[in-house]
């Protein structure tokens, strides 16, 4: 199936915002602060508040998309729920079992059910292992003997993801980027997991391959009944693949809603700004988009985030209360949660409050008569293509991404999901010594933080993400 919109909707809401089937994954108040240390004694002088109080759930069979600007904590969240990182606070439940601080030994059997696809298809594959060895690793690590033998099962998996089973003995460098991503997918699916967390599964791929991989994930979900959490910074990809979408800003979920509700009537000003910058590929419909909101400035530092609403330094609707009081994530419409005192398309939660001096935002009207080109009067240098505007569309900015993760550029895409620890070195986790690489399916020893850098890997998110969106996606 290539058209996501034809999919059966996800099961009814469960958990926090409705009733229905039990969530597969339940996250409450999840926190991850990376300590910043100084001196030989490693005195703690601060903390990167990468993830700061996330509450959400993932229902069986659905795809939860997660979007947000670079550095807002998406990958950290992915690594926390797959327990590649130890949470600082909060709770993670998988199938009703609390796995928040579960030991590696007790987690091992659960690793079969929770798998991760990493962003960098090359860095996440051990170049010294053949494809057969890589995809077969989860079976060895988990002591699983598939019917017909490991080789036959690996070849079946390769075929499932559209690779030639004859290439069993080839090495990763003999494949294209898209094929390598498929190898990573085959490996993640080897043990028939229940939940797959895919961190930027297509952002390293060129646009034509993006569509292939997105459609592959889609087909596999139908075939194998998978539940996905897909992290991306490309709103077009997220729209295509997701049943529900969580929008993150500076370590927090600011809006969580089903896809249609979010795209038709976004409630958080940040989401509105993101949406307003999405390019409209149909020239006949461009006239309908008359306003683009250009957020000024960069995302504030997660080391000392703004008080109150973290978005208040960039929000054109900010009032005094926004500066002092953090808005809770509330369900203001059925299945639509938002954290804002003055939501768009919804009831004002703090009417009459005095506005903050709003010199941080430009609300720019392109005008219906001039739908394609931006007005010449725009003082900020702004190219015609909306996706090229680094401030206006942070989630769709491909070029800035590799450089926009200063603290942990090589953190996760290089981590070996099935523990093929080539030559682990200490990660940049400032919280202390890193454990050996552990990933879903691995038997690596337990440690406080589990990231690893195979010696052969040389990049972080080195591959820029083409952010023109997944082509072939349905556009409403
Ligand atoms: N091991 C670490 N040690 C210290 N800080 C870290 C570590 N890993 C991540 N961070 C910081 O936490 C914040 C969130 O990082 P994260 O990788 O989760 O962002 P992201 O949303 O995935 O960004 P991107 O879209 O660029 O991948 C960033 O400020 C990052 O620098
Ligand atoms: S709470 Fe205030 S600052 Fe935050 S998004 Fe809403 S209006 Fe803007
Ligand atoms: Mg990331």
From TrEMBL:
Q: What GO MF annotations does this protein's record show?
A: ATP binding
* KW Nucleus (keyword) present: no
InterPro entries referenced in this protein's UniProt entry, alphabetically: AAA+_ATPase, ABC_transp_ATP-bind, ABC_transporter-like_ATP-bd, ABC_transporter-like_CS, Oligopep_ABC_C, P-loop_NTPase
Give the region (Disordered) as residue ranges. 1-22, 403-476
Keywords assigned by UniProt, alphabetized: ATP-binding, Nucleotide-binding, Transport
Q: Which Pfam families does the record cross-reference, listed alphabetically?
A: ABC_tran, oligo_HPY
Q: Where is the composition biased (Low complexity)?
A: 9-22, 403-426
Annotated ABC transporter domain ranges read: 25-275
PROSITE patterns reported for this sequence: ABC_TRANSPORTER_1, ABC_TRANSPORTER_2
Family indicated by similarity: Belongs to the ABC transporter superfamily.
Cited NCBIfam families = oligo_HPY, PRK11308.1
Q: What is this protein called?
A: Dipeptide ABC transporter ATP-binding protein
The beginning of the lineage is: Bacteria, Bacillati, Actinomycetota, Actinomycetes, Kitasatosporales
């Amino acid at each position: 199936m290539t058209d996501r919109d034809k999919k059966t909707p996800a099961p009814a809401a469960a958990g926090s915002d409705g009733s229905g089937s039990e969530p597969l994954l339940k996250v409450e108040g999840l926190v991850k602060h990376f300590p910043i240390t100084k001196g030989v004694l490693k005195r703690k002088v601060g903390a990167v508040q990468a993830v700061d109080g996330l509450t959400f759930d993932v229902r069986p069979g659905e795809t939860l998309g997660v979007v947000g600007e670079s550095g807002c904590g998406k990958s950290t969240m992915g690594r926390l729920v797959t327990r590649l990182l130890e949470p600082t606070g909060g709770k993670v439940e998988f199938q009703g079992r609390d796995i928040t601080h579960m030991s590696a030994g007790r987690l091992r059997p659960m690793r079969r059910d929770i798998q991760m696809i990493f962003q960098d298809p090359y860095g996440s594959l051990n170049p010294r292992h053949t494809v057969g060895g890589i995809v077969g690793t989860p079976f060895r690590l988990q002591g699983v003997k598939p019917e017909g033998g490991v080789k036959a099962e690996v070849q079946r998996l390769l075929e499932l993801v559209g690779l030639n089973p004859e290439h069993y003995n080839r090495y990763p460098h003999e494949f294209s980027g898209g094929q390598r991503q498929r190898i990573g997918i085959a490996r993640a699916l080897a043990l028939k997991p229940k939940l797959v967390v895919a961190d930027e599964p297509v952002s390293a791929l060129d646009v034509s391959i993006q569509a292939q991989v997105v459609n592959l994930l889609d087909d596999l979900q139908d075939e194998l009944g998978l539940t996905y959490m897909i992290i991306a910074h490309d709103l077009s990809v997220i729209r295509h693949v997701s049943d529900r979408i969580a929008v993150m800003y500076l370590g927090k979920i600011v809006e969580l809603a089903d896809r249609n509700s979010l795209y038709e009537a976004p409630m958080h000003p940040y989401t509105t700004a993101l949406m307003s910058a999405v390019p409209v590929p149909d020239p006949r419909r461009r006239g309908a988009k008359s306003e683009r909101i250009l957020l000024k400035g960069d995302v504030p530092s997660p080391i000392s985030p703004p008080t109150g609403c973290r978005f208040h330094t960039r929000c054109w609707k900010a009032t005094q209360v926004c500066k002092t009081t953090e808005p809770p994530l509330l369900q203001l419409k059925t299945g639509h949660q938002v954290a804002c005192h003055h939501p768009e398309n919804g009831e004002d939660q703090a009417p009459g409050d005095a506005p903050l001096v709003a010199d941080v935002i430009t609300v720019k009207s392109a005008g219906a008569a001039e739908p394609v080109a931006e007005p010449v009067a725009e003082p900020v240098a702004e190219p015609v293509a909306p996706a090229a505007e680094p401030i206006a569309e942070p989630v769709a900015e491909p070029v800035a991404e590799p450089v926009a993760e200063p603290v942990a550029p090589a953190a996760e895409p290089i981590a070996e999901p099935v523990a093929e620890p080539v030559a682990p070195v200490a990660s940049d986790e400032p919280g202390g010594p890193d454990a050996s690489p552990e990933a879903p399916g691995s038997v690596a020893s337990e440690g406080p933080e589990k990231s690893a850098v195979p010696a052969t890997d040389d990049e972080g998110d080195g591959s820029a993400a083409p952010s023109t969106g997944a082509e072939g996606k349905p556009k409403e």
